[in-house]
Amino acid sequence: MPELPEVETTRRLIEPFLLGQVIDTIEHENNHRYQGLSNVLGRKVVALDRRGKYIIARFEEPIELIIHLGMTGGFRLEPGKHTRVTVTTSKGTVYFQDSRKFGKWLVVPQGEYVTMPTLHEMGPEPLSDAFELEAFVQDMAQAPKIKPYLLSQKPVAGLGNIYVDEALWHSQIHPEATRLNPEQATRLYHAIRDVIARAVEAGGSTLSDQSYGLLDGNPAYFQFEHMAYAREGEPCQRCQQPIAKYWLAQRGTHHCPNCQPMP
Ligand SMILES: [Zn+2]
């Protein structure tokens, strides 16, 4: 599933086609995953932002188009058999493809996220000034199991299964650790910022299913820097013990049992 780095990369790729442009046409499949899209027809996109794993287009009118890529959603410059939404401006046409159909497009009144609890309760952006070390350390002192808590988006926005596993490996914290001490929380804070910044730089991670890619369909690069995610059985780059995988809260969870011992 696309996480912050993949969604940010996607946002940057479609920005030249949408920002400052009037939506000339928007065609989509007619079902509950695409709601209210006719409201943006003929309107000008004045900002194309991202919050966590959501792309948010803003208009001169007080409405927002919220795009969630789901599991396999992404944009291409050519139509394909999984094209679900086609958007045309004077700059060209972009095609939203989504093979597994978990993606969603929704037009809402500005700032009204009550129907989207994850967005409504989302924590700060990890690369923004709003993500403060002191507040994070305090939050982590009360944390329930750390991996599911990070996945909830409440302590910090945008991390999913890949980047939580990576940040916990870098900070040497077990995925089920609770109530982190200030030293652990500080390590985790810096690991999150570092991993996310490097992953954005690399255009995100293209996994073996190839569902996420750049606008031309080519893979991104951060998968080559994974230290834990999808490296089950391979040597830990810190201690050479094999990376282990187990299931935690229905998520495949990768960690080094030696460097990240159960607390
Ligand atoms: Zn290790």
Which helices and strands, and how do they pair?
Layout: H1 4-18, E1 25-28, E2 34-35, E3 45-51, E4 54-59, E5 63-68, E6 74-76, E7 83-89, E8 92-97, E9 104-109, H2 117-120, H3 133-141, H4 146-151, H5 161-171, H6 182-201, E10 244-248, E11 251-255
Parallel strand pairs: 2-9
Antiparallel strand pairs: 1-7, 3-4, 4-5, 5-9, 6-8, 7-8, 10-11
Helix pairs in contact: 1-6, 3-6, 5-6
The structure holds zinc ion.
Describe this structure in words.
The structure is a single chain. With about 260 residues, this protein is of the alpha+beta class. Helices cover about 25% and strands about 20% of the residues. The chain has a five-stranded mixed sheet. A four-stranded antiparallel sheet has the order 1-7-8-6, with helices on one face. It has a two-stranded antiparallel ribbon with strand order 10-11. A hairpin with a 2-residue loop joins strand 7 (about 85-90) and strand 8 (about 90-95). The structure holds zinc ion (ZN). Zinc ion binds next to loops.
Considering the chains and any ligands shown, give keywords for the structure.
single chain, 263 residues, alpha+beta, N-terminal domain of MutM-like DNA repair proteins, Helicase, Ruva Protein, domain 3, 2 domains, 5-stranded mixed β-sheet, 4-stranded antiparallel β-sheet, 25% helix, globular, binds zinc ion
Tell me, what is the CATH class of the largest domain? Mainly Alpha
How many helices? The count is: 6
Bound molecules: zinc ion
Question: Which class best fits the helix and strand makeup?
Answer: alpha+beta
Helix and strand string, N-terminal first? HEEEEEEEEEHHHHHEE
Could you name the CATH topology of the largest domain?
A: Helicase, Ruva Protein, domain 3
Radius of gyration: 19 Å
Strand order within the widest sheet?
Answer: 2-9-5-4-3
Instruction: Using the alpha-carbon principal axes, give the shape.
Output: globular
How many structural domains can be distinguished in the coordinates? Answer: 2
- Provide mean pLDDT, rounded: 96
Total DSSP E strands? 11
Percent helix, as a range, is 10-25%
Tell me what portion of residues adopts beta-strand conformation.
15-25%
Query: What does the largest sheet look like?
Result: 5 strands, mixed
CATH architecture of the largest domain: Orthogonal Bundle
Spans with pLDDT under 50 lasting ≥5 residues? none
| CA-CA gap between termini | 29 Å
